[in-house]
Specification:
alpha/beta; 11-stranded mixed beta sheet; globular
Length: 486
């Protein structure tokens, strides 16, 4: 059972395809692991175990693409954006605590069409707005490497479940780092795809900063899920450039030598840097070690960073993020037919939405234009450098409670400044739309994971996946087991 828990999704699906195990047996084993570990980690929101066993039975009968590379593998779905018909979808908020999704989202349909077996939904901070997973509605999720620490956010429950060996794949989304932040905190792989690579249907583009994908232990699992999920849905306003081949195929051979840039410190250049951001020594060591590994593998490595007014770009992004929060809550108010009551929103969420509503339409468009200019600058940088390596985070995973609202009369938006110091690197890819991934290449002396972020030009997932898979082969990480594991 332990070996099965640590097999990746492709390996588990192969057992089903070869009839070594049935999909039902795989699902039941994952259910057993979830029931054993959830009391300690608190990642589950809505267990869907009977539904999962029924889905697995359809895979065994051949009703669900039994021969696909993922058919029969178990997964979890984060309760944000992606909806499952007939299942409560609270998004970590008391405002939605009684909402039942009327239909599957496009992404959930694609997952199930690929034969993935959804065991249930997992937690998110309220409306996925925080870099930790501690919603008042559900309580905190714990990091399996150190239960006193945060698993990151907003897809922290997904990362904790994958890191602990409950499932090999868990859905997440990312508007400022929400796949990569928890991947770094929990020692797993988190890819943020290019903007509009995966459809957000039935929702709009959410300001262009949100993307959907998964957290995995292996690079090839992430690539295989992206093959299954990518592409526009009918009516999508735009979509990412089509990938000429298979993302999974890109992981199977070492890439030709690349030109790799790296920086270990705060982003600097142009007229200034990101004010107040400092990078912890272990985060610096992680990226420097990754750069050395790239050089040893034959890549041309340089210390370089795009020349950009990072402070202005970050300020513009935070304004777009706040406006997005306001629009998202207003959208839910329209669907529910009522405004949130006094106790329906956490103080930070309400304050962030209020800040977003204070932006005028011309001001918002000006912020978006500035970020588009930044995207063009960074794309020109990637015409010279295939990949940019940075730390994923500026700090180690924080203790739970660090992001709690300050006591009155404190300003709840102080949390946003605290969050920005923790995550000064991840927001860039959301602002520009480019793909970026957190790779678990470093651990501290006392066993805490530290991620390294690799970014590529818009549409360049194959570049990232090929390099990530090469680094994974050179310095395997999947054998590591956290103290809390299956």
């Amino acid at each position: 059972m332990t070996d099965l828990a640590w097999a990746d999704a492709i390996s588990q699906a192969a057992l089903v395809r070869e009839r070594t195990l049935s999909a039902v047996e795989l699902a039941q084993a994952a259910i057993d692991r979830a029931q054993a570990l959830d009391p300690a980690l608190s990642f589950l929101v809505e267990p869907l175990f009977e539904r999962a066993l029924a889905t697995a039975a359809r895979v065994d009968r051949g009703d669900r693409h039994r021969n696909g590379p993922l058919a029969g593998a178990p997964m979890l779905v984060k309760e944000h954006i992606a909806t499952i018909a007939g299942v409560r979808h609270a998004e970590g908020s008391a405002f939605l605590r009684d909402y039942i999704a009327p239909a599957d989202s496009e992404l959930v349909r694609r997952y199930e069409d690929a034969g993935l077996v959804i065991l249930g939904t997992c937690s998110t901070p309220e409306f996925a707005l925080m870099s930790t997973t501690e919603p008042a509605l559900h309580g905190p999720t714990h990091n399996p490497w150190d239960p006193a620490r945060s698993p990151g956010g907003s897809s922290g429950a997904s990362a904790a479940a994958v890191a602990a060996g409950v499932v090999p794949v868990a859905h997440g989304n990312d508007s400022g780092g929400s796949l990569r932040i928890p991947a770094s905190c929990c020692g797993v792989f988190g890819l943020k795809p290019t903007r509009a690579r995966n459809s957000l249907a039935p929702y709009g583009d959410l300001g262009g900063i949100w993307v959907e994908h998964v957290i995995t232990r292996t690079v090839r699992d992430s690539a295989a899920v992206l093959d299954a999920s990518c592409g526009p849905a009918a009516g999508d306003p735009y979509w990412a450039p089509p990938n000429p081949g298979s993302f999974l195929a890109a992981t199977k051979a070492d890439p030709t030598p690349m030109t790799v840039a790296f920086t270990a410190g705060p982003l600097v250049g142009g007229t200034g840097g990101v004010a107040g951001h400092r990078v912890a020594p272990d985060c610096v060591a992680a990226v420097e070690s990754a750069a050395s590994l790239c050089a040893a593998l034959g890549h041309d490595v340089h210390h370089a960073v795009p020349e950009l007014d990072w402070s202005a770009a970050e300020a513009a992004f935070l304004d777009v993020f706040a406006a997005n929060c306001a629009a998202w809550i207003d959208g839910w108010a329209r669907r529910l037919g009522r405004e949130p009551g006094e106790c329906d929103l956490e103080p930070f969420t309400r304050a962030l939405a209020d800040a977003g509503r204070r932006l005028s339409a011309p001001e918002l468009l000006a912020r978006l234009e500035l970020l588009q200019e930044a995207g063009r600058t960074i794309d020109r940088f990637h015409q010279r450098y295939d990949v940019l390596l940075t730390p994923t985070l500026a700090e180690l995973p924080p203790l739970l409670g660090v992001f709690e609202a300050p006591p009155a009369p404190g300003d709840p938006l102080e949390i946003l400044a605290r969050d920005a110091r923790f995550t000064p690197f991840t927001w860039v890819a959301n602002a520009t739309g480019q793909p970026a991934a957190s790779l678990p290449l470093h651990w501290t002396a006392d066993g805490i994971p530290v991620g390294v972020m690799a970014s590529a030009r818009f549409g360049g997932e194959t570049t990232l996946l090929a390099l990530s898979a090469q680094l994974e082969r050179a310095q395997p990480w999947a054998e590591r087991r956290p103290p809390l594991h299956a």
